[in-house]
Amino acid sequence: MFKHYEESLQIMTGYYREQKGVIALMLGGSVAKGMERADFDLDGMAVGGQPGRI
User: What DSSP string runs through 1-54?
Assistant: First the structure.
């Protein structure tokens, strides 16, 4: 994984860790598949939920 992706993931993780209701972060696209190039974007998704509900 390219360093700029690692840095972006650290920023995303830090931000969403502080947000109430976010229960997961998911990585998608070419980076998740291990097929990224340096000029590709990073596809991240935050999943929200309600506490106490499944």
Answer: --HHHHHHHHHHHHHHHTSTTEEEEEEEHHHHHT---TTS--EEEEEE--TT--
Contacts of 53 (CB under 8 A, 6+ apart): none
CA gap 31, 25 in Å, rounded? 14
Closest CA to 45 of 1, 31, 35: 31
Task: State whether residue 42 is helix, strand or coil.
Answer: coil
Confidence of residue 39 (pLDDT cuts 50, 70, 90): very high
The structure's pTM equals: 0.74
